[in-house]
Amino acid sequence: MTELSKRDRMRMERTPVPLRDPVDRVKDFDEVSLGYASGLAVLEASRCLNCTRQVCVDGCPVGVRIADFIQLVADGDFPGAAAVIHEDNVLPSVCGRVCPQEVQCEGACVLGKKGKPIAIGYLERFVADEERRNAISASVVIAPPTGKRVAVIGSGPAGLSCAGDLVKLGHRVVVYEALHELGGVLAYGIPAFRLPKDIVRAEIGALERQGVEFETDVLIGPGMTLRDLLATEGFDAVFIGTGAGLPRFPGVPGEELIGVYSANEFLTRVNLMAAYDPDARTPVYDLVGRPTVVIGGGNTAIDAARTALRLGADRVTLLYRRSETELPARHEEVEHAREEGVHMRFLVSPIAFLGEEGWLRSVTVERMMLGEPDASGRARPEPIPGAVEDIRADVAIIAIGNAPNPVLTRATPSLDTSGAGTITVDLTTGETSIPGVFAGGDITTGGATVIRALGAGRRAAAGIDQWLASQTS
120: closest CA among 25, 49, 179, 204? Predict the structure, then answer.
């Protein structure tokens, strides 16, 4: 391609990514975004200004050298681009699909000040997918064996990131997963139309080839304890990355009715246990032809609403207690949901679930208005006196957040935790109150993004490596 001037690149429009038609995609769980073909990827990459001060890297929680890999894409050197990404990110195919680039790397992009930023996420996805499609194996340098063994509890983003960095440093790593499928929230929490499960398995397979060992169906806590890992199993250090999988409920009457789900349970049954299959052993309540509401405004709420549509719900309505301006879900996912037919109502909050003979039949909501900012900095929703109505619903899916599951922490009294149940750690190293035990990701922060969990895993891996070295010297 002819070298473009900086002015020419600034004038170029962002290259749109092809999407499946909403009429077709809502009928199945196949991926919505088709991704860039090579020509589109090179075209989009050519927009990059290759800034001297690469602020986009500052916006990336794992520090990927963004301008470097994008330049390689523009040059047509896709294997080279993959090698650059793999230096810092063990899950590029995942991050390219589900990370909120618009508020991270792309949010910092200089081009976004007067136009649209470089499509960093789509380019990262393209490089990783191209690598997999063509069986390109990016060279990963593994240090000589140190003789040290590290146990990683949880195979979600934080655990995988920590394991990937530790094995590169020459340590032997074993990842323990409580469920039968690896991937944590990547496997059970994110629908296949956003993140195909073969992508997750491929990323994990790459880690296995580098030397990371995995064991499923192993619950650490009441059975095998942290002490067992360190004293009996012979591990020199432990990383805890068990996430935040305990659903929150609004605490209003009728939550026990049949048809009321937490989004965690609903999505786990569908994503991990194929509940959309009529022969599934753990089905969800038949949604075909049934009015459904989803309560919440984050990415999980949007995922649940779009999943309900694919399961045949008659009308799916998202209920959010703030205005659309405060909606925390990714703008792209909200637009996709609207295209597919999700209805959205703002400034309403549930105050009761009503039923007949134990089955949900409607949700009582009160209308809200926005008051002064709360601790999050967003306008606080306040009820409007007397503004109450019933919304017909046979199914209600609650997606108002999750807390850390207390199984491991309750079994380990010496592990310091916060009032919210998160594990207290050194923010730089990830070290906990127990020597040799580290933690990171949602178990330390509460629910956050995949890429922030990856960043926490990387920091903890560096902390573990330093701690192991200090024990040897």
Answer: 49
Q: How far apart are CA 203 and CA 354, in angstroms?
A: 44
Cβ contacts of residue 360 below 8 Å, gap of 6+? 254, 257, 258, 259, 260, 353, 354, 393, 394, 395, 396
Fold of the CATH domain 149-245+404-472: FAD/NAD(P)-binding domain (3.50.50)
Q: Are 6-133 and 149-245+404-472 equal in CATH topology?
A: no
Sheet containing 379-392: give its strands across: 348-356, 359-373, 379-392
pLDDT in tens, 428-467: 999 999 999 999 999 999 888 899 999 999 999 999 999 9
Q: What are phi and psi of 220, to 5 degrees?
A: -90, 130
What does the buried/exposed string (b/e) look like for 35-74 if buried means 16 or more CB atoms within 10 Å of the residue's CB?
bbeeebbbbbbbbbeeeeebebbebbbbebbbbbbbbbbb
Say which CATH class 6-133 falls into.
mainly alpha
pLDDT of residue 44: 96
Cα angle for residues 403, 405, 410 (degrees, 5° grid):
125
Distance of alpha carbon 129 from alpha carbon 96, whole angstroms: 10
* Neighbour tally for 422: CB within 10 Å: 18
Is residue 135 over pLDDT 90? Answer: no
Fold annotation for 248-401: FAD/NAD(P)-binding domain (3.50.50)
Confidence of residue 138 (pLDDT cuts 50, 70, 90): low
Mean local confidence (pLDDT), 341-360: 97
The structure tokens 């199984």 sit at 407
Query: CB-hemisphere CA count at 13 Å for 234?
Result: 4
**Predicted confidence band of residue 298 (pLDDT cuts 50, 70, 90):** very high
pLDDT above 80: residue 350: yes
What is the Cα–Cα distance from 121 to 40, expressed in whole angstroms?
14
Residue 435 one-letter amino acid: P
Q: Model pTM? A: 0.94
User: What's the rounded Cα separation, in Å, for the pair 131 and 135?
Assistant: 6
Please tell me the predicted confidence (pLDDT) of residue 118. Answer: 96
- Residue pointed to by tokens 């792209």: 332
Domain boundaries defined on the chain: 6-133, 149-245+404-472, 248-401
Element (H, E) at 8: helix 6-11
> What's the pLDDT score for residue 144?
95
Strand 260-262 vs strand 213-215: parallel, antiparallel, or unpaired? unpaired
pLDDT tens digits, residue range 168-203?
999 999 999 999 999 999 999 999 999 999 999 999
